[in-house]
Amino acid sequence: MILTIVAWIQGKHWYRTTSKALGLGVMVFGFMGIGTISFFLMERIGFPASYGFFFWVIIGIFIYAVFIDLTFYTLTAWIVTIGQLYEGMAERNFSILLALALIFGLAHFAWHHANLFYAVLFLLALFVHAYMFFSFGI
Question: What residues form the membrane-spanning segments (predicted)?
């Protein structure tokens, strides 16, 4: 956990000072590390898997809001989609938390940036959420 936080801080420093690409890569490493650790920690404690994915998505939305980099939007969209798929396939349930994070978090940025790539990512994630909702319900 400490290593991922240190990687995140160092990546942020490199992103703002020397090399944007290197800093972004190290920040992505830190983001993925913190997310996987939180996911497995929530699983170990006994919470549903959707809580770990929700925490990970909230971190991703916050990071994207700070840096406005397409990489973090893409990662967050993938994480919320994979989280819903995991919740549906493994737990046979629909996660309302992940759906709310998609609708209120990622939709906001897709709407305000008015970019085709943002819209397509959001629509793919929304399609998966709608499929899981109609397959498993609340």
Answer: 21-41, 53-82, 94-111, 117-136
Q: In terms of residue numbers, what domain contains 87?
A: 27-136
Number of compact structural domains in the chain: 1
In a domain, 69, yes or no: yes
Average pLDDT over residues 22-44: 86
Residue 85 lies in a domain: yes
Tell me the pTM.
0.86
Residue 108 located in a structural domain: yes
Instruction: Assess contact for 33 and 7: CB atoms under 8 A.
Output: yes
46: left (phi over 0), alpha (psi -120 to 50) or beta: left
